[in-house]
Specification:
The structure is a homodimer. The first copy, chain A, is of the alpha+beta class. Chain A has a domain at 14-89: Arc Repressor Mutant, subunit A. Chain A is 55% helix and 13% strand. The first copy, chain A, contains four helices and three strands. The first copy, chain A, has helices at residues 10-21, 26-33, 41-53, 77-103; strands at 24-25, 57-62, 70-75. In chain A, strands 1-3-2 form a three-stranded antiparallel sheet. In chain A, strand 2 (57-62) and strand 3 form a beta hairpin. In chain A, helix 1 packs across helix 4 and helix 2 crosses helix 3. The longest helix of chain A is centred in the C-terminal third of the chain and has 27 residues, at 77-103. The interface between A and B is large, with 35 and 36 residues. The structure holds a DNA duplex. Chains A, B: It comes from Tumebacillus permanentifrigoris. Chains A, B: This is PadR family transcriptional regulator. Chains A, B: InterPro entries: Metal_resp_DNA-bind_regulator, Tscrpt_reg_PadR_N, WH-like_DNA-bd_sf, WH_DNA-bd_sf. Chains A, B: Pfam families: PadR.
Chain lengths: 110, 110
DNA sequence: ACCAGCTACCTTGCAATGAAAGGTACTGTT
DNA sequence: AACAGTACCTTTCATTGCAAGGTAGCTGGT
């Protein structure tokens, strides 16, 4: 998978979903997501900052036995709503793209 | 559908697929795709230029009864290969994103 | 004490791409 | 002539992912 462009906007959704399941810190998130989708720290940290700034996450620090303190991210209520909206949009979007590429945009629809 | 970012890279695939089915001109393409995905001329024309420059399309002009001449785009062999590669990548990508957001990145996998 | 390697955080500068806004030009109708 | 519709094109901007680099703490080996 070399196509960077596919990822645009989708990483945001992945991050929102994973943090929604349990509080996570950035480094953990990178390792978690990158099992599936190639991703680097330089992508995740700015994304986490932005989503926090936009009110979708709160953060807190916790000590670690194996290194510097970890900054955990927790999904807010607004974040949950945003996540749910994005999931619906993702679903609709994939459906529409598949309409275009599998039926050639010639399929009858509303 | 307000999320612009989802579209990044995917429009390229849509354009390749549609032109692969039959020669199309830009204006027609905009109207065709925008039934499914919001899109504007300012997006399509630069994209068509780029894909032509990269050797995926050839072009020819044809007169029109109802306005200025139309510039038709035709998919090259290289374009067909690229289209097929992109389709496979899109499929894989969607599968992986769904793994992350539906199984929380905890599903066993190669 | 020193160093390597890992964990964990962060930033700057860059490239790609979609969109808004604007421009050109032809045809047909009024 | 004026206008609407078709059809092309460009410039400028915002967003976002990445490479590269920087800071700092902990662990284990020498």
């Amino acid at each position: 998978m070399e196509n960077i462009q596919f990822k645009k906007g989708v990483l945001e959704l992945c991050v929102l979903v994973l943090v929604g399941q349990q509080d996570l810190y950035g480094y953990e998130l990178v390792n978690n997501i990158s099992k599936y989708i190639e991703i680097s720290e330089g992508t995740i940290y700015p994304l986490l900052r932005r989503l926090t700034k936009e009110g979708y996450f709160t953060t807190y620090l916790a000590e670690s036995h194996e290194g510097p303190p970890r900054k955990y991210y927790r999904l807010t209520e607004g974040g949950q709503r945003y996540r749910d909206d994005l999931m619906r949009e993702w679903d609709v979007f994939v459906g529409r793209v598949n309409s275009v590429i599998f039926q050639g945009g010639r399929h009858e629809q509303g």
